[in-house]
Structure formats: C-alpha cells, structure tokens
C-alpha cells in the first residue's frame, strides 16, 4: 500500500500542473478526487483484480476513449478512468461521460463530478475536447450497460455522435475492450417495461436485487481485463458534417475492433470463482493476523 | 439608483466620462450618499409610463442604463410574482419604447444568468444561444425570462437605430450588493446541500460596474454572458470563504418536501434551491472578444472574502 501512496503523490503532482487551481468548471476537485481514488484503489487492484493490456499505445492525449459498456452500474467507467490515471506514463485524467439520471442521484452526482466525470451531453463533450481534455465515451449508451444475461458481451448499436465530435475537434480515438464487468451481476433480467413505468433508464433484476435491498447491489468480485487497441486514425475526407452512411462505415470498423477485443479477451478470461476464493483467503488471513496481534 | 450596483456604476461613469451628466431614478428611497457631485441628479418616482415619458422629454439622454430589476420578496417569495411581472416586463417595455421614441443612442440592460435555468442536464458553458429554460420549472422566474426575451427581440429589431446591449452576468457579489446570492452567502441559516456541490461563477460588483461603464463606448450591440473566465468555485468552497455558518442538509430529500407543503424555513427563494443542486456555468467567450486582457480585477477568492463582514 505504501508504494501506491507514493504513486498517488506523483500522479497528483502531475495533475496539479495541469489543473493549477485544483478544480475546473466541470466540477473537478483534485483534493476530493484523490480521496475518492484512494477509496477506489483496493477495489481496482484487489477486489476486481484489474489488468490492463496495451497501455503503451497511449501517449499524452487528448483522446476520445471508446469502450464497450457493461456491468449494470457503470463500474467499468470507474475502472477504465483509474487505469488511465495509474497505468499511463503521464497520468491522464479521463472524463467519463455519465448518463443524466446518474447525475441526479444524491451524493453520487457530487462524487462523480469531483472525480472528473461529466454529464453525458454533446455540448459538454465538445467543450471538453476543445479544452484538450480526454473523454471516455460509451457509444452504446444505457442499452450497453443494462443488458440481460443472454446479451452479455454482445455490443449494442453505437450512436454516431462520438465520431462527429471526434472529427469536429480532430481528436484521436482509442477503442478499448473491457472483459469481466458483465459478471459483476452474472444473472440479470432487465425489466424494461417496469423501468419505463417508473421513469428509470433501466431496472436490472437479479437473484439478489432488489430482493436483498442495497446488499443485493454489491457487485461480484469478477476480475476485469482492459484491452487498449491501436488508435483509430480519423478518416481523411470525412468531416463532422458527412452523411450518416459515410460515418457508419467507420463506426462499424471501430465496433468490430472492440468486439474482436472482447472475443479474444473472453478466451483468456479469469474465473471469478478463483478471484472470490483468493479474496476469501486474504480476508481470512487478515482476520487471523489481526487476532494474533 | 438606490441599489449598490447603480451607485458603483455612477461612480465609474463619472471617472470614465468626466463630462457626463447622470440622472438616476428609483422607486425606492435613494440615500443622499448616492449623490456624489453636481453632475449627478436623482429622483424617486413611481414607475409609470407618464413619469418615464416626462423624464425622457425633459432630458436629452444619450444613454439609458436599465439596471433595476425587482427581485423576489425575501419575506414572501411566492406572493410577489404579479407585481414583479408588472415592473420587470411591462416597465422594461415602456423604457424600451421610449428609447426608440426619443432616439437614444445607447441602451444597456442588466439581465441575469438565471434565465438559463439549472437542470440536471445543463451542460457546462452555456453560451448566449442556449435556451432560456428557467421558467419551465419555477414560474417565479417567468418575469426574468420574459424581460430578457422581450429585450432580445427589441434589440435585434432596432439594431439599426440604437446600440443595445443585454448583459447576463453570473452572480454579482460584493459588500455593496444585496441580491439573492449575496443574501444566501451571508445568511447563517441558509441550507448548504450535503448531497451536491455545484460549481458557481461570481463577478465582483466593482468589475461589473466597470464593465457597464466600458460598454457604453466600447462594446457593440449584442447579448453577452458575463463571467470572469474560468474562475469558478464550488458552493461549499464559497461558503467556507465567507465564513458564515450554514445548515448542511440533503436538499434532494428536504427541498421537495418543503415545496409540497408550501413552506420555506430559509430565506432563499425556491428557485435558488435548483441552482444549489445543479451547476449552471456560462461561457463569456463572446464578451471577452471585446475586452482588453485582464479586464476583470477581482478574483472570486477576493470577492468572497469581502463578504465576510
């Protein structure tokens, strides 16, 4: 843990150079972000045992990072952002674009903004890219994160907005694939009609949620692998104003890169039972050592 | 003319344009200390068409600064909407008609960034083209939005005849001002949301006065958001700087309850609660094109500390 603390000092020294006021108009608050990151770290490295492949492809940015979305409650965004802070040569504070509904949740909205997330809005994204910030976009939107079990790891249709914004600001795109997050809640049924009735973006029902209340919302310790792909070069002769059919060709290509990354990642997926056993063992050892003391 | 900003603007105008004559009116009592020298005359009038017409007829005005906007009644925020609509919308219409009738050269009107409204889906950096959505949720802001829209239409319609400027400033703060935000920051019983920490922009009263004076000769017709670059502060930080006590409260739970029972235990209007929950950050890029570098002299930190006493 000591090593992590030293790393955090270095990371935040770098970030303070970029954000000398320690905050920005989107609500970032470096002091609070550090506190939040400190709390996330044990989950990132231990509970979800996150591995990152291909981070050497990432330079200083800015980038538009495009990822598949999974896991019902957007923990994947948290893990990707943490990876870009910890595992890049120069820390990159990714700005995840968050669903509107999430921003209205008491406390969550506050913490999300303080740690660098922003409201998933076209204008917000454009302004961030113009300010040379790196953003994290999930082009599948809510339908990506809220899949029923039979849809796990099948990419949903990508919206076109991200490509138009990348073209408008000439921001390089980095596609990434995340494997493991779907199993945070391994058995899920999306009650779409009920969600619509309750005016919720999604309503996942699992064997534990909502039946066990907040306890049922605790994600399983599924190990997560993040695969960073080569930057997708923005096509010549295509602009933000190009017709949909012109953009679709490139969107399909990006989608294919991510899907292939997922398929490859699934072949090397670690078992979450093994991870659970490891955590249980560590927990037991921790208790024993505390009792011995 | 009775307000703090009008007093500071008068002072600034006299400094910037030593030969000018200023005629200030207000429906409220104008303290004698607001009159600086013989170049300033003040008069307390009722805001009626007749009184305004007489004023325009008797004086050969060159520039009209419309800084007065009736704010909500602190004691009874919901009761005064009709009166405010009458003053702010109808009153402004009368003044604008007279500006055209008497061929006034410059007309500056002070609106507010509140016209955009604070919503969970409000993007950061609202420009002047953004929709004015404030009254969608809170009818008590209807007068503010209607006044702004009316002035915008008038401005473009008459741009060949008069230079018109609408300023939509962020929160103007300073020891001489007593607007809703200053009252909130200084209040000891104001609710501070535990569950949100929105980003705010503040502009110092002296900077605002300097801007209005500068605009008379240096800024062209247009609608301009006013903010001091990217100098922002979260509400919790702002409250800390002012060093006043506050009531930490989960606004997402408490505020709808008070609204339901039509009761406010605090002295801030209902609509402000929305601004305490969601950030409403404006872009002043358009204005900055017309200002010299480092035009604004006071940063937020300094301005908030000035509210301590």
Structural commentary:
The complex is a heterodimer of chains A (293) and B (309). Helix content of chain A is 45%, strand content 11%. With 293 residues, chain A is of the alpha/beta class. Chain A has a single domain, classed as Glycerol-3-phosphate (1)-acyltransferase (3-Layer(aba) Sandwich). Chain B is of the alpha/beta class and 309 residues long. Chain B has a single domain, classed as 3-Layer(aba) Sandwich (Rossmann fold), CATH 3.40.50. Chain B has helices at residues 4-16, 49-58, 81-101, 134-137, 142-157, 180-186, 205-218, 235-242, 251-260, 270-277, 285-288, 300-305, and strands at residues 22-26, 40-44, 63-66, 106-110, 163-169, 171-173, 191-193, 199-204, 222-226, 232-234, 247-249. In chain B, helix 2 runs parallel beside helix 3. At the A-B interface, helix 5, strand 4 and helix 6 of A face strand 10 of B.
Structural class of chain A: alpha/beta
Looking at CATH, which topology of chain B would you report? Rossmann fold
Gyration radius of chain B, in Å: 19 Å
CATH architectural designation of chain B: 3-Layer(aba) Sandwich
| CATH homologous superfamily assignment of chain B | NAD(P)-binding Rossmann-like Domain
Strand line-up of the largest beta sheet of chain B: 3-4-5-9
Mean pLDDT metric of chain B = 88
Order of helices and strands of chain A: HHEEHEHHEHEHHEEHEEHH
Global shape of chain A: globular
Task: Write down the domain tally of chain A.
Answer: 1
Helical residue percent of chain B? 25-40%
Report the biggest beta sheet of chain B as strand number plus sense, adding barrel if it closes: 4 strands, parallel
In the predicted model, the low-confidence regions of chain A spanning at least 5 consecutive residues are 1-6
CATH structural architecture of chain A: 3-Layer(aba) Sandwich
**Number of DSSP strand runs of chain A:** 9
Ends apart, CA distance between termini of chain A = 19 Å
What's the helix-strand series of chain B?
HEEHEHEHHEEHEEHEEHEHHHH
């Amino acid at each position: 843990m000591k090593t992590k603390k030293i790393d955090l000092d270095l990371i935040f020294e770098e970030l303070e150079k970029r954000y000398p006021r320690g905050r920005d108009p989107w609500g970032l608050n470096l002091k609070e972000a550090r506190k939040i990151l400190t709390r996330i770290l044990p989950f990132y490295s231990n509970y979800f045992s996150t591995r990152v492949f291909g981070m050497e492809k990432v330079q200083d940015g800015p980038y538009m990072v495009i990822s598949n979305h999974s896991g019902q409650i957007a923990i994947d965004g948290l893990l990707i952002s943490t990876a870009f802070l910890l595992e890049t040569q120069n820390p990159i504070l990714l700005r995840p674009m968050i669903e509107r509904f999430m921003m209205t949740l008491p406390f969550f909205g506050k913490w999300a903004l303080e740690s660098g997330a922003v409201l998933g809005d076209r204008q917000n994204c454009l302004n961030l890219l113009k300010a040379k910030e790196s953003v994290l976009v999930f082009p599948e939107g809510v339908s990506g994160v809220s899949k029923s079990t039979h849809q796990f790891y099948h990419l949903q249709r990508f919206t076109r907005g991200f490509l138009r914004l990348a073209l408008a600001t000439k921001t390089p795109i980095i596609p990434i694939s995340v494997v493991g997050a779907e199993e945070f809640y391994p058995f899920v049924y999306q009650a779409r009609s009920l969600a619509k009735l309750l005016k919720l973006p999604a309503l996942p029902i699992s064997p534990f949620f909502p039946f066990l209340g907040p306890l049922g919302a605790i994600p399983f310790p599924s190990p997560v692998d993040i695969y960073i792909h080569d930057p997708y070069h923005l096509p010549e002769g295509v602009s933000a104003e190009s017709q949909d059919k012109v953009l679709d060709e490139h969107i399909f290509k990006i989608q294919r890169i991510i899907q292939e990354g997922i398929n490859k990642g699934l072949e090397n997926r670690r078992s979450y039972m093994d991870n659970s056993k490891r955590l249980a063992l560590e927990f037991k050892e921790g208790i024993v050592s505390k009792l011995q003391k | 003319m009775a307000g703090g900003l009008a007093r500071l603007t008068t002072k600034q105008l006299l400094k910037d344009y030593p030969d000018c004559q200023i005629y200030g009116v207000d429906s409220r009592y104008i303290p004698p200390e607001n009159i600086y020298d013989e170049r300033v005359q003040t008069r307390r009038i009722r805001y009626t068409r007749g009184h305004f017409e007489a004023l325009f007829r008797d004086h050969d005005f060159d520039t009209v600064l419309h800084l007065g906007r009736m704010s909500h009644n602190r004691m009874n925020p919901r009761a005064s909407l009709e009166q405010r609509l009458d003053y702010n919308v109808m009153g402004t219409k009368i003044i604008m008609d007279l500006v055209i009738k008497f061929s006034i050269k410059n007309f500056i009107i002070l609106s507010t960034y509140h016209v955009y409204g604070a919503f969970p889906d409000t993007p950061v950096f609202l420009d002047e083209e953004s929709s004015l959505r404030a009254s969608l949720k809170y009818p008590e802001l209807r007068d503010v939005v209607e006044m702004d829209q009316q002035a915008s239409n008038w401005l473009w319609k008459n741009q060949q005849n008069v230079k018109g400027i609408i300023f939509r400033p962020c929160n103007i703060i300073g020891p001489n001002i007593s607007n809703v935000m200053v009252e909130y920051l200084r209040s000891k019983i104001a609710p501070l949301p535990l569950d949100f920490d929105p980003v705010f922009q503040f502009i110092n009263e002296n900077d605002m006065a300097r801007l209005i004076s500068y605009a008379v000769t240096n800024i062209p017709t247009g609608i301009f958001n006013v903010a001091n670059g990217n100098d922002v502060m979260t509400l919790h930080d702002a409250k800390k700087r002012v060093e006043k006590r506050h009531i930490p409260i989960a606004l997402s739970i408490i505020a709808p309850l008070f609204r339901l029972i039509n009761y406010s235990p605090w002295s801030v209007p209902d609509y402000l609660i929305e601004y305490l929950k969601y950030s409403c950050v404006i872009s002043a890029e358009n204005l900055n094109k017309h200002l010299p570098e480092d035009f604004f002299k006071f940063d937020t930190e300094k301005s908030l500390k000035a509210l301590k006493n």
